[in-house]
Design a protein that fits this description.
3-stranded antiparallel sheet, elongated, alpha+beta, 21% strand, 3 strands
């Protein structure tokens, strides 16, 4: 009986662990150190993040893969 209660509790808690993520950001910063950060919603945000660090900004190639059809 305890095993059943534990199983039910675990299955009830599963939806709490899922987080909803928004659409992928359209711009990626590729730092000269080799790190990539694809969390920018404008080209200006991306270039500001690279200021002084070096690197380039490019469109996020994974964005279309994660966009939902409206």
């Amino acid at each position: 009986m305890r095993v059943l209660a534990v199983i039910i509790t675990l299955f009830a808690a599963l939806p709490l662990g899922q987080c909803s993520s928004g659409p992928a950001a359209p711009w990626c910063a590729h730092y000269s150190t080799g790190l990539n950060d694809c969390s920018f919603y404008s080209f200006q945000q991306c270039t500001a993040a690279l200021s002084g660090a070096g690197g380039i900004c490019s469109p996020n190639s994974f964005r279309r893969r994660y966009q939902r059809d409206s």
